TrEMBL record:
The keyword Zinc applies. The keyword Zinc-finger applies. One of its GO terms (molecular function) is methyltransferase activity. Signal peptide: none annotated. A zinc finger (dksA C4-type) spans 78-102. InterPro entries: DksA-like_N, DnaK_N, Znf_DskA_TraR. PANTHER family: GENERAL STRESS PROTEIN 16O (PTHR33823:SF4), RNA POLYMERASE-BINDING TRANSCRIPTION FACTOR DKSA-RELATED (PTHR33823). Residues 7-70 form the DnaK suppressor protein-like N-terminal domain. Keywords: Metal-binding, Methyltransferase, Transferase, Zinc, Zinc-finger. Pfam families: DksA-like_N, zf-dskA_traR. It comes from the Bacteria. It comes from Marivita lacus. Residues 73-103 form the Zinc finger DksA/TraR C4-type domain. This is Dimethylmenaquinone methyltransferase.
Length: 103
């Protein structure tokens, strides 16, 4: 497994997520409309954006953890059992902290 490639890929994904979070935050900061029906629709949209933001934050934490494992030299090692995580699994799920058996 090419760690430099994995690191580059994770850093690019981190930048994408950070940008998405910024756009979500900007949208949530927009003033609410005065009309009650429009306000209700806007609130529903805000709830969706908040859910997307939470999912992005969760993924950001996983990306940061994977980057930390790369820096620590433990990337590709299962945090539960210590066995190697297969290259195929890391290619499919670059943030994987567990081997297939432990997952």
């Amino acid at each position: 497994m090419d760690l430099n490639h994995q690191k580059d890929m994770l850093e690019k994904r981190r930048a994408e997520i950070t940008g998405e979070l910024g756009r979500i935050e900007d949208s949530l900061d927009d003033p609410m409309p005065q009309d009650w029906e429009d306000r209700a629709t806007e609130r529903q949209g805000d709830e969706v954006l908040e859910a997307l933001g939470k999912a992005d934050l969760d993924e950001l934490h996983r990306v940061d953890a994977a980057l930390g494992r790369i820096e620590a030299g433990t990337y590709g090692v299962c945090v539960k059992c210590g066995d190697p995580i297969s290259d195929e699994r890391l290619s499919a799920v670059p943030t994987a902290a567990l081997c297939r058996v432990c997952a």
